[in-house]
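Worked problem 6 (solution included).
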Amino acid sequence: MYDTASLTKQLTGLVGLYNDLFDDSGQPATPSPVVYLSDAHKLLRPDIINALGPDLTSAEALLAWYSRIEKGAINKLALSLSGTPTVSAVLNRQSVFAKEANIQGAALTKNNRFLAWRMTMPTGLVKTQIIRGGIQFTGPVTDFPLYLFHSENADPVAVINLTGNTANRTIWANFGEYLNPSEGYYLIGYYEADLPPGVSVIGREQSFTVAGCSSCNGSDYALVAERSKYINIEAVYVAGVLVTGILNWPDETVISNQTWGLNLTIEAYCDRQNLLVKALLYLIACDVLEEIASSDRVNGLSAQLRSEAYVALYGQSSSKVTNGALAVVRDNALTELKNALASNNCQKVEAPRRGIRFDSLFD
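Solution. The predicted structure is:
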């Protein structure tokens, strides 16, 4: 689950260098960081990095240097996790509904709407992956777009295109997108305006909740009961959509029992994002402290702070790494992450806090 490519996509930019660092175009240097490097240790303040780090005279060079450090730390994290047991899904490749709609009288009348499912993760402890998505059509379609939106962004998170010639059956395509516990909600759906002439979608009345699904057949009731612990789904629509491909409305109207012809195959995992960010923070911090400790810069701070950086990293003992040293904190964070990944118990874990400080001679 955690290879280098997926970790790079998932974690890049989450540990920020400075909270006031901007690139040459005036934009923030990192996208929405969760923590900043100085949260790991006060010796990683911007003024100290500027004084003892590489002699970087431009924002572009500084960002290139930090990007190298960040990339190396993510590679180390992936290597460290390579021997960790495969993460087990708490919800394993489950379809939202077991059966398709009966085609008799089930074709939806096209009314220029956006038809979707609204999805939230109620516990905030689970990350859900959409393995594939499908729609049941009355006829063939080519590159029919199925959109995934997040409520905080007008542009889609992802789009897949459905192509198939089988009438009255569900046409599927692979998705592979993760739904992360966060503010807001996700929408997955389609625009009726994109349907080809003469082709409609086949829907059916079906509840998404255990209480509303008491009359469901056994298989659908079991799916709803298991899924509802990890993800909430409700059918919604937006009437009179004039522009497709963008989320440009303030809210959706909820309808209690309608599938809109949609179906998904999903998996759910315990969310370990906070522990991943915590481990990456200390990996980057240790790598930066090593560069500071071995810096050949010559200025008024260099002799004193190079020594302090070494002690912060390894402790005061010359023969072994001591408790409280950042290298120990890093190793403990990696151990905590590995233990959590090997467990299937979705416990709440705290995110690394901004302003982390350690009791030491540097305080």
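Discussion: The longest strand covers residues 126-136.
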